[in-house]
Write a structure and sequence with these properties.
Helices cover 83% and strands 0% of the residues. It is built from four helices and no strands. Helix 1 packs antiparallel against helix 2 and helix 3 runs antiparallel to helix 4. This is GtrA/DPMS transmembrane domain-containing protein.
Length: 126
């Protein structure tokens, strides 16, 4: 949960930076935030959640590809929730509430997908 919170803060921080420089660019902000959060969460999950110590460009490339593919499903859930809250409340507070809910649900689902399909050969640390 701590790593999900770290990735969430990085994601929303990146979104705020984009929106500060480019007001109204919600899609660009969501893409930037997702990218920043994805990379941070991959590195943290690989090392500390799944205790995967394999190294090398080929290994990281393969794992990151699978990790990103699993994230595609959860990103749609996250974006739909964030956008839906923004459409309903028409404010940054509503948008961020939707983002927090969507990210929370998405990270829970993502853990299950990653455990099964990305880091399946690694035992999960308690």
């Amino acid at each position: 949960m701590v790593f999900a919170a770290v990735a969430t803060v990085l994601n929303l921080g990146a979104q705020r930076l984009v929106l500060a420089g480019w007001p109204g660019a919600l899609l660009a902000a969501m893409i930037a935030g997702t990218g920043v959060g994805l990379i941070a969460k991959y590195l943290l999950d690989k090392r500390f959640i799944f205790d995967d110590r394999r190294e090398g460009i080929a290994v990281h490339g393969r794992l990151f590809f699978l990790y990103t593919a699993m994230g595609g499903i959860t990103t749609l859930l996250f974006w739909a929730t964030e956008y839906g809250f923004w459409r309903f409340g028409q404010s940054q507070s509503w948008r961020e509430a939707g983002a927090l809910l969507g990210l929370g649900l998405g990270y829970g689902l993502k853990y299950l997908l990653d455990r099964r399909f990305v880091f399946a050969s690694r035992e999960v640390r308690a």
